[in-house]
Amino acid sequence: MSETVLDISQVSKRFGATLANDTISLSLERGEIIALLGENGAGKTTLMSMLFGHYTPDSGHISVMGRVLPPGRPKAAIRAGIGMVHQHFSLAPNLSVLENVMTGTESLWRPWSDRAKGRARLMEISARFGLKVSPDARLGDLSVGEQQRVEILKALYNDAKILVLDEPTAVLTNVEAEHMFGNLKDMARQGLSIIFISHKLDEVMATADRIVVLRGGRVVAERRAVETSKAELAGLMVGREVKRPLREPATPGAVVLEAKAVTLREGGVERLKAVDFHLRAGEVLGIIGVSGNGQAALARLTGGLARRSAGEITLFGQPVGDLSVREVVGAGIGRIPEDRNHDGVIGEMAIWENGVLERLPEFTRGGLVDRKAGMEFARRIIEGFDVRGGTPASRIRLLSGGNMQKLILGRNLIEHPKILIAAQPARGLDEGAVAAVHERILAARRAGTAVLLISEDLDEVMALADRIQAITGGRLSPPVRPEGINARQLGLMMAGEWGAAEHAV
Amino acid sequence: MSDILDILASAGLWAAVLRIATPLIFATLGALLCERAGVLNLGIEGIMTFGAMIGWFAVWNGADLWTGLFVAALSGMVFGALHAALTVTLGLSQHVSGLGVTLFASSFSYYLFRLLVPVEGTPPKIIPFQPLHIPVLSDLPFLGQAVFTQTAPTWLAIVLALALAFTLFRTPLGLAIRMTGENPHAAESQGINPMVIRYGAVIAGSALMAMGGAFLTLSAFDSFIPTMVQGRGWICIALVVFASWRPGRALAGALLFAFFDAFQLRLQTVMGGALPYQLFLMVPFVLSILALAVMARRARVPQALMQPYRRGER
Amino acid sequence: MRFERREHIPPALAVLTPLIAVAISLALAGGLIALAGAPVLTAFGKIITGAFGSKLAVTETLARTAPLILTGLAAAVAFRARLWNIGAEGQLYLGAIAVAAASAHLFGGLPGVVQIPLLFVTGALAGMVLLLIPLWLRLRFQVDEVVTTLLLNFVALLFVSMLIDTVLKDPLAFGWPQSVPVASQAELPKIIPRSRLHIGLLVAVVLAFVVHFIQSRTAFGLQSRAAGLNPSGAAFAGVPLGRTLLLVAMLSGGLAGLAGAVEVMGITSYVTTELSPGYGYSGIVVAMLAGLNPLGVVLAALFTAVMFVGADAMSRSLAVPSYIADVTVALSLLTMLVAIFFTQYRIRR
């Protein structure tokens, strides 16, 4: 039975000063599911990109079914039977499902496209693997889960024998994810070989036959799923004791922010549907949920970037209208945006300019910017928050993600805000930076700041939040306490099953 | 009122509509092809100018008319390659590069024209394309005069619109072009080289633009006058949006615009100076702006339009 | 071969970039001059003497520099905020005709000290108004302002042509389509008597410094730069995007309108449809050559003016069409774009 379909041998890849992959070897059997486990920056995606021909390895080689794959040629990888499902889908929303699947599958010089044949083939594959899809739907009208199905179908349509999935559950609800893993096991039984990239221990243990752990660009361990445990894997993945800061008990103060039946409608879509929540001084309220369920709308609303369509908001006990960003910042509300590079900073501007931009009125005298005071402000942040890799005058683009996030945290926390809206504050950071960010948030909580933590990372919310609410389809569940609830129940809440939250607090 | 009806009932109006529409059809199709692959080509105005000049010059120098049209198309390809080098290989701002190409192509065509053609009192002329007599059809009453008195390039333009529609929506190549304009990363992950597709689309599209320009000097008129393109290129850019990036609608849009243009020309003579002629000349430009305002939100823009593609960069 | 973004741009390279770009465009132009069968070095020599060879030549060159500085500034401030105002040509014409109309029918009796500033404001306002239309279309309907400003250039020129044919026609011009002249006290004082060099040049240079100050020191300057570099990041930081763009548009349109005012009041005293040899479009090149730096605009405008004036003189004595100036300026835009690219990226393998 054991037949090696893929053999990665001694592959290395260097980007500038970092060795992203260091002599990695890996083999995959027919009908096997391998999980590639590792933290962000462990080199998983680089390895898979080389497998798919997006990057050329500096040394080593990859062979499929015993034949060496020419490096750096996606077309050759497809022909050899490798199908890739990217984390960010490689699909075109304006084209139909069939068009998305058929792109590049026929010779470009064919005088016309044989759609009937393509459609029949798509339907046949769809039936064989139980991946239901309607070929003429416009892709952009499909749900995220359906779009992922199209990605998988696209690979299968290309006769993929080896399927590579990059963090396939990052964008799915628990229910969708379970369904998808069910499909994957089915496919493996029918002879496909599968590699999926993940950093979630639960899904790795539940789905994979074999688990390869990557750390710092090297394979540090290989285990059969039946012979290992989550604890062992966690240790291997991180390589040291995971020490996330502990939240000490505290007595929350007065309610500083309260929303009653707040609805947000944008372009005819109800992003938030009559949500209720309140936030007390000195506590962390965690909002969990799968991305795309209204988190962004909630962050924009509380951050002064959107106007509510209905409902009431009280700030420090007073009802308020729609506040602008400047009013929000002026009222002592700090904001950490979900997308650092897109919203949090202006890459081509100096660190000091990024520091003062959201509180520009404070640094303006008679229309002129007080450059000296701005530089001083930036210097205080850099020192106080241990921002490395830049001076106040250097462009912020040159900072690493973790240092950029420290700067954003710093420009908010240095003025001791009364409220902090933190959207995915640790996303994409390495373990050290995550701990630093969490430590800062807890320090702010100790100092009496009320924190609204919007996050998809259950561990993060469990570690930091005093109360937790789930957001699903624009609705907020009643709050629960983390002590009395486990990850499975939280998962159910995120899927819209609020039974666990019956004993609301 | 009866004046207006008279205009509408005259075969000359409808013949003029097709004639005025032809350069717009060529150039709009060209711009559309570029944009479907994700490249805005503001070189259009200059490429049309150069095509008008070089096509005319070739014929004036002894080449036959079709060769003139072909030479114009070749020149368009050269400028298209230049625009592609700037925007596809280097990934520079498509706006600024396009304007640069327009400024260069138009000034270069004036320079060459002055250099190659001796200055005379009246600009030298060629014998342009003559109306194509189609048996039976051209002899029909009214229709024969109104529709079937066009020169061959007009029919070519209409055929090209259909051919482009077929290519984009019915062939693997067309799908590859559209995918490149929507999501070049997806195209690449399916084994298509987005760079090659973009180069090809911009070069072919620019050839069409130059042919549109050449129609002005080889069919609509018989000599080259600097500034004769008169903003037609910009109108074509607006027409692409108006047409929602569909060749069939681009054809219809060009005809609609030409209708307004032909109609205002006749209205001018009928009104006999009651209104300044400049007001009539503004019509196509104002219409273009209105069309943009109405269609901009509704139109489904190719998602990767104006986004440079670099491998491995997202 | 692939391109890799440079972490740091060497300062020397940033300064050298426009010089390299200009040198390459001149070399290419040399090829075209050779194509015309003229001796290349002699031709360049004649361009230089044509632009600087006599007192008259110098004043002519500087007089041409003034509107180019203004349209260059108009493009530079707009582009920096990623507002693609390609409509400076139309705004220039509208500013010019507004000045002629206002001087003839409104302020004609006022003394120069009062009238000249009033007319400057009038011209600037007219330019602003024309840019507000595409700005509104962009903010309201997301219409690309590049196309609308381009289209409006034609509308504006036809509008001016209509006015000088009808209500603003000069009755003393023997039927030529030209506008009524500005009042004599509104004519700009000359810097050098009996030349065409007027104080418009000083106005333009001072404005370059003013714009530089606004961009580098004021809150508005910082916000407009932020809005241009990353609109969503700027919005997150509370920069009022609409208002900032409105101010940028007013500044940009105003500068272009002022270019028209200065031309009418300083050079022609009346408006024809040949008032501008494409100053609006050349302004784009000037801005790009200057790297959008307001002070650099002054130098880039001077280069452009030298090319135009010098090429005119050169073509009179050699059989090289004067369009060589337009070609060189257009080429310098393209070479500048490429040169800027190579300051930001380097080639790998």
Which SSEs are present, and which pair or pack?
The complex is a heterotrimer of chains A (505), B (314) and C (349).
Chain A lengths: L3 E12 L2 E12 L3 E5 L6 H8 L7 E6 L2 E2 L5 H7 L1 E4 L11 H6 L12 H15 L14 H14 L4 E5 L7 H16 L3 E6 L2 H7 L2 E6 L2 E7 L5 H9 L16 E12 L2 E12 L3 E5 L6 H8 L7 E6 L2 E3 L4 H6 L2 E4 L3 H5 L6 H6 L7 E2 L2 E2 L1 H14 L16 H13 L5 E5 L7 H16 L3 E6 L2 H7 L2 E6 L2 E2 L10 H8 L11
Parallel strand pairs in A: 3-8, 3-9, 6-7, 7-8, 13-20, 13-21, 16-19, 19-20
Antiparallel strand pairs in A: 1-2, 1-4, 4-5, 9-10, 11-12, 11-14, 14-15, 17-18, 21-22
Chain B lengths: L1 H8 L1 H26 L7 H17 L4 H25 L4 H23 L26 H4 L5 H19 L1 H11 L1 H6 L4 H27 L11 H11 L4 H25 L5 H19 L19
Chain C lengths: L1 E4 L5 H25 L4 H13 L2 H26 L7 H18 L6 H30 L3 H21 L34 H18 L1 H11 L1 H6 L4 H28 L10 H11 L4 H24 L6 H21 E4 L1
Antiparallel strand pairs in C: 1-2
Describe the protein's architecture and organization.
The complex is a heterotrimer of chains A (505), B (314) and C (349). In chain A, 33% of the residues lie in helices and 26% in strands. Chain A has a six-stranded mixed β-sheet with strand order 6-7-8-3-9-10, with helices on both faces. Chain A has a domain of 247 residues: Rossmann fold (3-Layer(aba) Sandwich), CATH 3.40.50.300. Chain A has 505 residues and is an alpha/beta fold. Chain B contains 13 helices and no strands. Helices cover 70% and strands 0% of the residues of chain B. In chain B, helix 4 packs antiparallel against helix 5, helix 4 runs antiparallel to helix 10 and helix 12 packs antiparallel against helix 13. Chain C has one domain: ABC transporter involved in vitamin B12 uptake, BtuC. Helices cover 72% and strands 2% of the residues of chain C. Chain C contains 13 helices and two strands; from the N terminus they run βαααααααααααααβ. The mean pLDDT of chain C is 93. Chains A and B meet through helix 2 and helix 3 of A and helix 8 and helix 9 of B.
